[in-house]
Amino acid sequence: MEINGKNVPRLRQVIDVERATTKKARESWNMLTIMAEFIDTTERLSELRPAVSMFGSARLLEDSPYYALAADIARRLSDAGFAVISGGGPGIMEAANRGAWEGASSSVGLNIELPHEQSSNAFQDISLSFRHFFARKVAFVKYADAYVVLPGGFGTLDELTEVLVLIQTGKSRRIPVILVGTTFWNGLVDWMHQALAGNGLIAADDMELFKVIDEPVNILNAIVDFYQEPAEPSEVERQTGVFL
């Protein structure tokens, strides 16, 4: 097929029947596995709410003060009636599941196979396994009524910036997004103020999409207070009906 004078081949145009059949089968199987992950997630988590997704490094183990802090936050959330969702792995993910496991509400792990670092922790009432990162990422946002983000690496930053973009663009409803660890996050927050808001790359009020809070009781209160007066859907939400 030609587009603007360029040859852009399509799968149906593959002449080699064996190659075309193999490729079609592979792509079809990939689509089925993706659909299966979304279906399983919907079946297992759609009635879970209220829930809070928690994030943080797999490398911050039990001897880290952030591990104890994450477990404390998760326990308080769980006892207050919030299910806690984590990535299901070690480190801060384990601490989040552990705190919820010891509390009154469900502990949920969205596990994924990785070449290193990721192994399932033992503190999961509900455990799901994913092959596809994007299906897992959708689940974190879709079933969360708040995000609590502790120190972490690229994966943690990825989850944080994704939810901020979805809220900013109206593709997800507004939820509390809380960064835990003032000392850790201050540099990033200052950079956002100066380099992003300062250069007009984000609006000044986009900085209000998240808060930095250190104390577990204040984190819980911030989430509860947010839902004391449920916000009306935005105009974008009313027009599009888009909720992840």
Helices, strands, pairings?
Layout: E1 2-3, E2 6-7, H1 17-45, E3 51-55, H2 65-79, E4 83-86, H3 92-101, E5 107-112, E6 126-130, H4 133-142, E7 146-149, H5 154-168, E8 177-179, H6 182-197, E9 211-212, H7 216-226, H8 235-240
Parallel strand pairs: 3-4, 3-7, 4-5, 5-6, 7-8, 8-9
Antiparallel strand pairs: 1-2
Helix pairs in contact: 2-3, 2-7
Name the descriptors.
Rossmann fold, 9 strands, two-stranded antiparallel sheet, about 240 residues, alpha/beta, about 45% helix, single chain, about 15% strand
The number of E-state strands comes to 9
Number of helices: 8
Main β sheet profile = 7 strands, parallel
Fraction in helix: 40-55%
Q: Could you say which overall geometry the principal axes of the C-alpha atoms support?
A: globular
How much of the polypeptide forms β-strand, as a percent range? 5-15%
Describe the model.
It is a single chain. This protein has eight helices and nine strands. It has a single domain (30-240), classed as 3-Layer(aba) Sandwich (Rossmann fold). The radius of gyration is 20 Å and the shape is globular. The strands form two sheets. It has a seven-stranded parallel beta sheet with strand order 6-5-4-3-7-8-9, with helices on both faces. A two-stranded antiparallel sheet has the order 1-2. The longest helix is centred in the N-terminal third of the chain and has 29 residues, at 17-45. The mean pLDDT is 89. With 244 residues, it is α/β, with parallel strands linked by helices. Helix 2 packs parallel to helix 7. It is 46% helix and 14% strand.
